[in-house]
Amino acid sequence: MHIARRTLLGALAGSAALGAVGAAPAAGAPAAPGGAAAAALARLLPRHHRQVVFRPLPRRDGDDAFRVSGQEGRVTVEGSTPAVQLTGFHWYLRQTADAHFSWCGEQTALPDKLPGLRAPLVRNANVRHRFALNDTNDGYTGPYHGWDYWEREIDVLALHGFNEVLVYAGADAVYHRTFIEHGYSDADVRRWVPGPAHQPWWLMQNMASFGGPVSRELLDRRVALAQRIVRRLRELGMTPVFPGYYGTVPPDFERRNEGARVIAQGDWQGFPRPGWLDPRTPHFTRVARTFYRVQQELYGPTSMYKMDLLHEGGSPGDVPVGDAARAVEKALRTAHPAATWAILGWQKNPRREIVEAVDRSRMLVLDGIPDHYPNVTDREADWDGTPYAFGTIWNFGGHTVMGANTRDWADLYHRWRTKDGSALSGIALMPEAADNNPAALALFGDLAWTDGPVDLADWFGHWPRYRYGGADANAVRAWEVLRRTAYGCTRADGWGEQADGLFGARPDLAVNRAGSWSPRTLRYDPDEFDRALPALLAVAPALRGSSAYRHDLMDVARQSVANRSRLLLPRIKAAYDARDRGRLGELTRQWLDWMGLLEEVVATDERHLLGRWLADARAWGSTPAERDRLAVDALSLLTVWGPRASANGGKLHDYANREWSGLVGGLYRLRWKTYFAELDASLAAGRKPRQIDWYALEERWTRQPPAVRTKPSGDVVRIARTVASRL
């Protein structure tokens, strides 16, 4: 057995992509000439980067800090790490040059010479931990993004002040190599590993296998990408946060490893959950030792590991939770003595038995719900003084909705951080999908660099100036509307995100949400929201040239159209209930016309194209069959999510609904046309509507979607004017 294992591992090590991974990237790997911050600025502002000098700055009382000074054309940025230097430069850009970068659009129209500062710009971080990305991010944001995307993403996170980034890419290879050393063949493990779109939930011990098997070539490519990600993070002085090992095992582990003890975990939303290896046992110790060794060989060590023990309904069986937590922590400390255990604050996590059992000074709870539930008031009592990061999950599933509970951020963050005995030591940016709500990204990042509470009226009053490149009363008016509506809600109603649109819902006359766990009603006045679009359209022509303006115009127009669905559906129901076929036909044509206009709106933006999502997935395949499999893996996440038991019984269908070109005009339109035709036929025949097997329709469409565009089309200004004229 040992000879066979060595032979197989030798073959693995000999592959082209893995041949370069024997030496872990060094924590202090040399950056490009001029330093990592200078290299980033050369990518971001190639015309101006030589006007900026970056220099190190000692931390102030242990806190990150930056200082920006200089004259026209000669700007000096000092910071405690290259990433903090970029944060300082971005603050300078916003406050002095009316420019900025973001997830969604940027404004970089700058004079030939960068403006000087009247006085130095100095900021200290008010918390040590500035964590970014949700466990689900690699699924809902883009499981098949390549290095071009990640290079930009890391730059943007650094510009916004974040210093700890969750890295799930490449974890599949760690598990693959680990279990080959514990009784499994190469093919066994590859069958167990899901497709990349579904891997986040496998890493959280919710499910396995769906969307697989993964190929050796795919694993190799994901290793290479992950190595580039962690290397860049280290160059910038940012911390890659890796998944730790807490007991997930493939099927039949007990049979293949004599004496092992595995606790069955039941189901998660219709998926069988992987088994949980009892952490108190020698088998757990051995597997964890292998896991951390392999992980370090591939990606090097880090100082923070994320583990959500017994996540979302996991069962401890007869294993005492405190004993399990101590054993999981011991395995981590054996491999990485100084590491911090990061754990998600979500539902019942972390259980009290966990925080009572571990070294709380070396645990960080990433609180996902302080802006969600009004009964969350005292995290020091909830977690026995465990350090925690004030977090937000303003987006679920990648829904294309505008808004966030920014009033809660302004009200709670400073008050909780400065109260006596506060354990708040960080922020945690954790939307389930990134690349949306750029104002929320900027505002939440600013919490960690602002003295005192944030004044929302003042913040949103300044935002459009650097968002579009100059002062404009109409831009300010538009964002004041958005501040009061989409960004003006609070957790008082028990919701952390805005309601999704009904165009993406499975058709029903009584449907009030597309995703099963989305808000049932709009959380703001849609008529007031509609006032933002004409104000944006009235922005001065000189300020309309940026990708930031074009994105915002698209997004406000899209949201205005999406909100029509909630106003129109009750009228359609009333016509049907009155058995008025003429009125029903008129209103359903209006519905489909609005869907057609929505398709036009989102087709103008590259990030709202289903074709781009599918093309990215196919690009990772090595054979036609694999390209098809990866496309289904990626598309199923947005539609049925999983097999019938999960889509219907587990209520996961449309969890990740989004208003994208190709989805709106494709699956969503097909469903509503099919439904409206059946309603009309039922009235004509004087019968009840027949039940439609939506899963069967969705599954067919997911496996054989029509051709969809991969490049934007249309003039967003012209289309937004059409939307405004119809509101």
Automatic annotation (TrEMBL):
| Domain of life (superkingdom) | Bacteria
Which is one Pfam family of this protein?
A: NAGLU
Q: Name one GO biological process term.
A: carbohydrate metabolic process
List each copy of the Alpha-N-acetylglucosaminidase N-terminal domain by range.
36-115
Picking any one GO molecular function of the record gives:
hydrolase activity
The residues covered by the Alpha-N-acetylglucosaminidase C-terminal domain are: 459-724
What residue ranges are annotated as transmembrane? none
The answer to whether keyword Signal applies is: yes
Q: Where is the Alpha-N-acetylglucosaminidase tim-barrel domain?
A: 130-450
Keyword tags: Hydrolase, Signal
Query: Which PROSITE patterns does UniProt cross-reference here?
Result: TAT (PS51318)
The signal peptide here is 1-26
What PANTHER family has UniProt attached to this entry? ALPHA-N-ACETYLGLUCOSAMINIDASE
Protein name according to UniProt: Alpha-N-acetylglucosaminidase
Q: What is the lineage of its organism?
A: Bacteria, Bacillati, Actinomycetota, Actinomycetes, Kitasatosporales
